[in-house]
Design goal:
71 residues; alpha+beta; three-stranded antiparallel β-sheet; 41% strand; elongated
Length: 71
């Protein structure tokens, strides 16, 4: 898959952890790596994340190959 760099701003560390966890558990992303987490101005954090996009995850391919009952 293609490498993707994600940059953004989060309100706190828990938001970053939740976002990372969601990407890590998604069948569409692989190898997430947190590359930056730094306090910005105010009470926000700048965030950097690298990951690989999977175009056709095995779970989705398998589901698309099944046919409804009666067909």
């Amino acid at each position: 898959g293609a490498s993707v760099k994600i940059a953004g701003v989060a309100m706190d560390e828990n938001a970053v952890a939740n976002y990372y966890s969601n990407i890590d558990s998604s069948p569409f992303f692989d190898e997430p790596k947190l590359t930056n987490l730094a306090r910005s101005k105010g009470d926000t954090f700048s965030v950097g994340l690298d990951c690989v996009v999977i175009n056709r995850p095995p779970e989705i391919v398998a589901a698309s190959n099944t046919q409804p009952a009666g067909q």
